[in-house]
Structure formats: C-alpha cells, structure tokens
Design a protein that fits this description.
single chain, 4 helices, transmembrane, transmembrane helix, membrane, Transmembrane protein
C-alpha cells in the first residue's frame, strides 16, 4: 500500500514502526554520503590550494568546495539529530503509541525552540518524507564535490 502525500496520513501501528525504521535507514545512508562529500571537499581544498598559483579557476573551485563543505557540515548535524529522533520514535511507538510519541516530540522540540507547535501535528509519514529529503541533498552535494574534484584534476 503506497504512502500518500496528504497531511492526514495515518498508518497502522505496525506500519508506523517500519516507516520510522525506514527513515532511520535513509538517514544513515545520508550520513554516509555526507561523510563521502566531506572527504571530497578536503581533497578539493588540498588540490585547489596546491594548484591555485597556476590560475584563478583553481581558487574559485576551492571556494566552491569550501562552501559546499560548509553546507555538508550543517546537513550532517541535521541528519544526526533526525536519525536519533526517528530511532527513538521507532522504539517509543511500541510503548506509548505513535500519536502520543509524536505529540511529546512536538512539545519537546517547541520547548527547545526548534519548532512551532502545530494543531494536530504532522503525521509520521510526512515527517519521514521530510527527513528523507536529506538523502537527496546529501547525494547532490557529494556529486557536486565529485564534479569539482574532476574539474580540478582535468584542468591541471
């Protein structure tokens, strides 16, 4: 049964657990991609630093790699936080039920200033789709770092 894209997504209790677990898996993959992108950023910075006396294009590519690396560091923080939260939701869903877990999560996030309380809250499926966007961002940033590395090597 495919998950719809409506705000009022409601799943069976067993399915909620697996949606949370799928989000954890996707966030684990996103973290690996971010780490790969950060390693490429370091390589790009080293290449750009050694090649920058040969031309401005290397300096520009180094700045691009550094900017992408800064975005990747922010993404790594978000992925790590969301991964822990979805892991806790997967465990808590069996004990207190998903609706109660989501409500207490919303309350805690609002208390930290990390979110606004929303009437009715977002469904687990919608939250998981939002978190899995980080996987797409991680892949795109790693691909951009790889492209920058290839350009640095090919332009030598």
């Amino acid at each position: 049964m495919p998950i719809s894209t409506h705000d009022d997504d409601r799943l069976e209790a067993g399915a909620e657990h697996w949606v949370a677990q799928a989000a954890v898996g996707g966030l684990d993959a996103a973290a690996r991609l971010v780490w790969a992108g950060l390693a490429l950023a370091l390589v790009n910075l080293l290449l750009a630093g050694t090649l920058s006396p040969a031309g401005r294009v290397y300096l520009v590519l180094g700045i691009v790699a550094a900017a992408l690396g800064a975005v990747q560091l922010w993404l790594l923080i978000r992925v790590a936080i969301d991964r822990r939260l979805f892991g806790a939701l997967a465990e808590a869903s069996a004990l207190a039920g998903m609706a109660a877990s989501l409500a207490s999560l919303d309350q805690a996030l609002a208390g930290l200033g990390w979110g606004r309380p929303v009437a009715g809250g977002r469904s687990l499926a919608r939250r998981a789709r939002g978190a899995l966007r980080f996987l797409h961002w991680a892949a795109a940033l790693a691909a951009l770092q790889l492209l920058a590395a290839l350009l640095l090597l090919l332009l030598r």
